[in-house]
Design a protein that fits this description.
385 residues, alpha+beta, six-stranded mixed sheet, five-stranded mixed sheet, 23% strand
Length: 385
């Protein structure tokens, strides 16, 4: 049920013709309370879509009544007209729900530059239709409506004693830090303040979505939203809630990784023995963004030399001639030199595990990425057409 798994939420997903396929393309999620708490994190790209510019203002007071999301058009680089479209979307939802427009978040995803009069009309119509079709089991429909190049919806639920968290996500390309090409809506019926919701969300995204680096490309429309209804009446243990939220975000991040455009390998890069967590992240990310390494994995080639070449470009503390590298459990490099034969490494499974031991400290981090395939190039060479 994703976003309607938690008490106090209704959702809908409708089709209004934004997608040529005729598939659902506008989703609405509404918080019926009693709390109307919200928190959100956004892309760190300086080039921000109009819905991001709007939502950054809305979230400042920590109150969110509803969120409207559309696929089939990014409404990015569409000028003041596009910002007015976002504003009108919030106003339409607010009028129909009897709330303030300044408490309605808006998200869009699709082709940059899309957002003309026709787009506006369909989004507004979809907002009205979606609100008319709201239901307490509408989470599945909503998760379908936010998909773009996704091959399947991404949903997750975590239940604890007396309270729940539900979530939905979209994303299949441009998955890079500063979030990814993703829209994520998370709901909970636990009792939280806006300050608590913000702190928990930032802590959870830092070690989940922000560690997903599929192709090194950062989107203009990324947003992860947490909505809190408090309908369970239960105030959770802070550590327990943060752990559950991190579990859900990690689940959704893994689903995004597994649906990355054209990928044939899901690569988990585990960096251990680092002097600091920051060093571990930097090292892992350098490999995740290395096209030579990613192409080698696509070809089932355990070319560990490309790993050392990639991490050598970082400022992290380590000795390149004292590093161990493991591929799918086989140590192919020991202290900067050859170890087990490459023939011992089986890279045919989709799940691929790379472990890098820097041997200088006790910090660690995990980065998620994918291989670089012909299908990825083909799909992105003709995305606009």
């Amino acid at each position: 049920m994703s976003v309607t798994a938690a008490q106090g939420f209704e959702a809908a997903g409708v089709a209004v013709g934004l997608k040529s396929s005729g598939n659902p393309d506008v989703a609405v999620v509404v918080n019926r309370g009693p709390l109307k708490v919200g928190a959100a994190v956004f892309t760190t790209n300086r080039a921000k879509a109009n819905p991001i510019l709007w939502s950054e203002q809305v979230i400042r007071d920590g109150i969110v009544e509803a969120i409207v999301l559309n696929s089939g058009g990014a409404n990015c680089f569409t000028g003041s007209f596009g910002f007015q479209t976002t504003h009108q979307t919030a106003e339409k939802a607010a009028a129909l729900l009897g709330v303030g427009a300044s408490d309605v978040l808006v998200c869009s995803t699709g082709l940059i530059g899309t957002g003309d009069e026709v787009f506006r009309g369909k989004v507004l119509a979809g907002t009205e239709q979606g609100i008319a079709e709201l239901s307490s089991d509408g989470g599945e429909a909503a998760s379908l409506a936010i998909m773009t190049t996704d091959s399947k919806p991404k949903r997750a639920v975590v239940r604890r004693d007396g309270w729940s968290i539900g979530g939905m996500a979209k994303g299949a390309g441009m998955l890079a830090p500063g979030l990814a090409t993703m829209l994520v809506v998370i709901t909970t019926d636990a009792v939280l303040t806006s300050e608590e919701a913000d702190a928990h969300l930032r802590a959870a995204t830092r070690v989940s979505f922000d560690r997903l680096d599929s192709d090194g490309c950062m989107s203009t429309n990324d947003q992860v939203t947490l909505m809190v209804s408090g309908a369970s009446g239960v105030t959770p243990d802070p550590d327990g809630f943060r752990g559950a939220l991190t579990e859900l975000c990690t689940d959704l991040a893994r689903q995004l990784q597994g649906d990355a455009e054209g990928a044939s390998h899901d690569i988990t890069i585990e960096v251990v023995g680092a002097a600091s967590e920051e060093d571990a992240v930097e090292v892992g990310r350098s490999v995740a963004r290395n096209n030579l390494f990613k192409a080698a994995i696509f070809g089932n080639d355990p070319n560990w030399g490309r790993v050392l070449a990639a991490i050598g470009t970082t400022d992290a503390e380590f000795d390149p001639y004292d590093v161990d590298v493991f591929m799918n459990g086989v140590r192919v490099c020991s202290q900067g030199g050859p170890d087990a034969s490459r023939d011992e490494v089986d890279l045919t499974p989709r799940a691929t595990h790379l472990r890098i031991d820097l041997r200088v400290g006790r910090s660690h981090a995990t980065i998620l990425t994918n291989d670089l395939t012909h299908d990825y190039v083909h799909e992105n060479s003709a995305y606009a057409t």
